[in-house]
Write a structure and sequence with these properties.
The complex is a heterodimer of chains A (159) and B (338).
Chain A lengths: L3 H22 L5 E6 L2 E6 L30 E4 L4 E4 L15 E2 L4 E7 L2 E6 L4 E6 L6 E2 L4 E7 L2 H4 L2
Antiparallel strand pairs in A: 1-2, 3-10, 4-6, 4-9, 5-8, 6-7, 8-10
Chain B lengths: L1 E5 L5 E3 L19 H11 L7 E4 L4 E5 L3 E9 L2 E3 L2 E2 L6 E3 L4 E4 L8 E9 L3 E2 L28 E4 L4 H5 L5 E2 L2 H4 L16 E8 L8 H9 L2 E3 L7 E5 L14 E2 L4 E3 L7 E3 L6 E2 L3 E5 L4 H5 L6 E6 L2 H29 L1
Parallel strand pairs in B: 14-22
Antiparallel strand pairs in B: 1-4, 1-12, 2-3, 3-10, 4-9, 5-8, 5-10, 6-7, 6-9, 11-12, 14-21, 15-16, 15-22, 16-19, 17-20, 18-19, 18-21
Helix pairs in contact in B: 1-6
Chain lengths: 159, 338
């Protein structure tokens, strides 16, 4: 006999999946996956998707900008996915981006472990790493502040 | 095409090996670390058993003549693409003309003993007896039946729909982290580090060894000697002896079997072992731990940890589970970044 709680959750999901999709459109979440015994739903964002449901609570909620928040002159790099933050590759001893390291846009500053997969935390701008804002091994949510960068080379010289 | 710029030594094309011809005396060959090959293939969007390059000696370098998705799994080392450092167990994009170097500036393996270079589409060499693995002893399979040399050109296979869809920029948690030996072996903190613990099932002649030898078998940190390769690992340690000398006929031998020649320390048969042998068998390293053995370098030490049939099946299930999770998550990340 199926677990009644599971059935309820799945039914709720089926009734509301379009609304859930519309909420997700307002975020940077590109993929959401929900699963239970014997079922699985994946919501994958497609370019050009327009919200369909009329009444979407939270539609105007604002998410933190991915790269430009923080005090002036600083860039806070935020998590684009929930996972365990790692400041180094699990096979390596040296930190990917220690404080003081000069980085270029697209360089990998840290990793987010989701199960058996590692996703990169990438530098949105050229600059100098001011420091990591969470400890390695910490579980972080979507949008969490992870690494602070002082953009450009000028701020690197200032003390 | 992939051009071998610096072949190192004993670099071979390997897949899972040819399993169906042992009864004709044909050894299996195949990747020593099959988990690194399989997981890397999943990361590439390849079939699990696509062929890749097994790299046991550094430095090693290739030049890509076309754009290609690549990954380096297995043992970690200094990996560079046109001088830019790369992460291991990570899906990268190599551009036409770029040179991938493993172990530049004389740096050896940081940990482990063999790296695997896998490419989207797999390494396309002709199948012989159902496998692309190099059979070094028989001089067939792989690329012209031999280890690669400088100047060899290898073709990447046709991309599957999965490998076409997925893109680069993410990686895998390596099995050495995801499936830690600490789950079944609590190392003595005062003992030397760098001991690879592998689970072993007692084999047919186990009971014929004397009690002291049986104790020594489990309690010794066996050294992997320099006379160890894809054929077998010759161990150094105390001599093991039998209660009475035993005559055994030649019988089937599989990778992982631990044979004890008269008066000698044990030999573990590996992927290139001949399919039959006659020495008494003390035990068998379980299939799920053969990849750990494959990554234990010569000079390092190994410890045998006794397990049961059920324990061996459970270990296999854990390894399959790891691959299943990888198989499940990789397409999602590939789609995300596309």
């Amino acid at each position: 006999m199926p677990d009644p709680k599971t059935v309820v959750n799945k039914d709720m999901l089926e009734a509301n999946w379009r609304q859930i999709a519309d909420w997700l459109v307002d975020t940077d979440i590109e993929l959401a996956e929900l699963s239970g015994p014997g079922w699985q739903v994946r919501l994958l964002r497609e370019a050009g998707y327009e919200p369909q449901s009329r009444n979407v609570p939270g539609r105007n909620a604002t998410w933190p900008d991915q790269s430009t928040s923080g005090s002036p002159g600083h860039v806070i790099v935020k998590g684009t996915v929930a996972g365990v933050f790692l400041d180094r590759h699990p096979l390596r001893t040296s930190q990917l981006a220690p404080a003081g390291a000069q980085v270029r846009q697209g360089d990998i500053l840290g990793l987010l472990q989701i199960g058996t997969v590692l996703a990169p935390v990438m530098a949105p701008v050229d600059g100098v790493v001011a420091g990591t804002l969470v400890s390695s091994g910490a579980m972080v949510g979507f949008g969490a502040d992870l690494v602070q960068i002082n953009p450009g080379e000028a701020s690197w010289k200032s003390t | 095409m992939i051009e071998i710029v610096s072949a190192g030594a004993l670099c071979t094309v390997q897949d899972f090996g040819r399993m169906a011809y042992r009864r004709y005396g044909v050894g299996t060959a195949g990747a020593m670390d099959q988990l690194a090959l399989a997981a890397g293939n999943l990361l590439m969007g390849n079939p699990l058993d696509a062929a890749g390059l097994e790299i046991p000696v550094l430095p090693f370098a290739v030049r890509f003549q076309d754009d290609l998705s690549i990954t380096v799994t297995g043992a970690d080392c200094r990996i560079e693409l046109d001088g830019k450092p790369l992460l291991p167990w990570w899906k990268h994009r190599a551009r036409a003309g770029q040179v991938l170097t493993l172990g530049s500036d004389g740096c050896g393996f940081a940990s482990g003993a063999r790296s695997y270079l896998l490419v989207a589409g797999g390494v396309d060499v002709p199948e012989v007896l159902g496998s692309r693995s190099t059979q070094l002893r028989g001089r067939f399979g792989g690329h012209q039946g031999r280890a690669l040399i400088n100047g060899d050109l290898l073709k990447a296979g046709v991309l599957t729909s999965a490998s076409k869809l997925s893109c680069e920029g993410y990686g895998l948690v390596p099995p050495v982290v995801a499936l830690p030996a600490s789950a079944y072996y609590q190392a003595n903190p005062t003992a030397t580090p760098q001991v690879t613990a592998v689970r072993v099932l007692p084999a047919a002649e186990y009971g014929a060894f004397d009690d002291v030898s049986i104790q020594l078998f489990w309690q010794t940190d066996w050294k992997i000697t320099a006379q160890s390769d894809r054929y077998g690992y010759r161990l150094a340690g105390p001599a093991l002896s039998m209660k009475t000398a035993l005559e055994t006929r030649s019988h089937g031998v599989v990778p992982g079997v631990i044979q004890v020649p008269p008066g000698g320390p044990p030999i573990i048969q590996m992927r290139d072992a001949q399919p039959s042998g006659g020495y008494p068998k003390m035990g068998t390293v379980i299939e799920a731990d053969l990849w750990r053995l494959a990554q234990a370098p010569a000079g390092s030490r190994i410890r045998f940890v006794e397990t049961t049939y059920t324990g061996a099946l459970e270990a296999s299930r854990c390894a399959s589970d790891y691959l299943r999770k990888v198989d499940h998550l990789v397409p999602l990340f590939g789609a995300l970044n596309a």
